[in-house]
## 1
Amino acid sequence: MDSVLVGSFPKASPLTIGGNYWRTKHCAAVYHAKATWHKRKVLKEYNFLRIQQSSLNHHYKRIDGVCTCQKCNIKFIVKATSEQSFEAEPQAFDPKSISDSVKHSVDAFYRFSRPHTVIGTALSIISVSLLAVEKLSDISPLFFIGVLEAVVAALFMNIYIVGLNQLSDIEIDKINKPYLPLASGEYSFGTGVAIVTSFSIMSFWLVWVVGSWPLFWALFASFVLGTAYSINVPMLRWKRFAVLAAMCILVVRAVIVQLAFFLHMQIHVYKRAAVFSKPLIFATAFMSFFSVVIALFKDIPDIEGDKVFGIQSFSVCLGQKPVFWTCVTLLEIAYGVALLVGAASTCLWSKIVTGLGHAVLASLLWYHAKSVDLKSKASITSFYMFIWKLFYAEYLLIPFVR
C-alpha cells in the first residue's frame, strides 16, 4: 500500500510515516524554495492522507489491480496542481497591448476635440495676429509668445464648446455621428463632463495668468455663446432655431476671432493704440460670409437626426438642395468681393497674391460643388470638409491683404 501511494507523488518519497521531524522540516523548506504556496498546501494534504492511511485501509479495495485510494490521491493532486498553475502564473507584460490602448485613447480624444474646428481656430488666430505686424522687427519672441498665449487659451475653450455640444447631443449623434466617443460609448457621460469642465477652467486660468483683457472678453463671449448654443435648458439650446444658431457661429468665427485676437496683439502685446485697418475690416466681412456658410452647411448631412429630435435647421425647413446651393452662391460672392479688394490694392504683390489666390479658390469651389451627390450623406460630408479646407486657405491669404 505504501508503494502505491508513494508512487502517485514522486517528490514525497523521502517522507515516511513516523519519519524524522527535522528531515520533514528540511524537505518542506526545500519545497518552499522551489514551489508556490499552493504546492506546499498540496504537500501538507498529502502527508495528512498518508498518516491516516493505515487506519483507513479497510475502506478501500483493489479494483482491476489499482487501489481506489490511489485514484483519489491522483485526482486530488492533479486538480490542485492545475489550479495552482492557473492562479500563480503572473500576467505577462505585453507592450503591444499598452501601445494599442494608448493609441485608442489618443484617437478617441482626437475625435472628441473635432479636429477640423481646432485647426480652424489655430489658423485664424495666427493669421489675424499677423495683421498686427507693421514692420519686420515686429516678428520677435514677443510676437510668438503673444500668439501662443492666444492659441492655447482659445483651443482649450474650443474643446469646451465642441465637447458641451456632444454632451447635449448624445442621442442625436447616435444617428448623425455615431463615430464620436460619447455617441459610441467609448466615453461615459461623466468622462465628457470632466473633460469639458477641466478645459474651460484651464482656458480662464490661462487668460488670468496672461492678463490680457481682449483675450479674456474673446474667451468669455465664446463661452457664453457656445453654452447658449448647446446646453438643453429653458430659453437656451439656440441650435434648435436656425437664425439663432447661425448668429452664434457668425459672432464667434467672424467677429470675436477677428477683432478680439487682433486687439490682443495690438494692445496687450505691442502696447499700441487700437486701430481698425483695411485688412482687418476685410477679414471680418469675408469671414462673416464664410461663417454663415459653415452654420448653414453643417446641418445638411445631419438632417436625418435633426428631424427626429425636432431641430429646426434651415436644411430641415427648406430642404438640402436649396441650402446647398445657397451656401455655394454666398461663397462665390465672397470670393468675387475679395477679387475686387485685391485689384484695388496699391501694393503689387498683394494684388497678385490675393487676386490669383481667390480666383483659384472660387474655381475649386465651383468644380467640387458640381460633383456632389445630394442623395449621399458621405458625399455631402466630404464637401463640408472641403469647405473647411477653403476656410483654412482663406486665413493663409488674409495676411497678404494690404
## 2
Amino acid sequence: MIRPSNFFSLPSVLPDQELFESLFFKENIRIERIISTGQTTPLGQWYDQEQVEWVILLQGEAVIFFEDGLRCKLLRGDYLLIKAHQKHRVEYTSIEPPCIWLAIHVYS
C-alpha cells in the first residue's frame, strides 16, 4: 500500500541548517522541499546554479536578492523563476513560521 506524505509535516526538532529533502529526481528534473528557519546566504557568497530553478514559498516569508540589484520579498504563495547562472542570495527567512519551499530544478 502506498502511504501519502504531508508536505507541511515538519520534524519535531528542526536542524540549525536549512533542510533539503529530495522528493523526485529523474534525468533532467529534481523536485525538493526546503525548510528554512532564519538561515541566509553568507555575506559575499552567491548561488550560481547550472540549472533553472522554479521556487514557490508555501509558508513563511523570505527575501531573495539578485546580483543585478533586484530584491524580491516573498510571502506565502509567491513564486519565482531563477534562470541558470542568475546569481542570487537569500537575505532573510522567517523563523516563525518556518519557511517551507517547493523547488523544481530543470537541468539542460
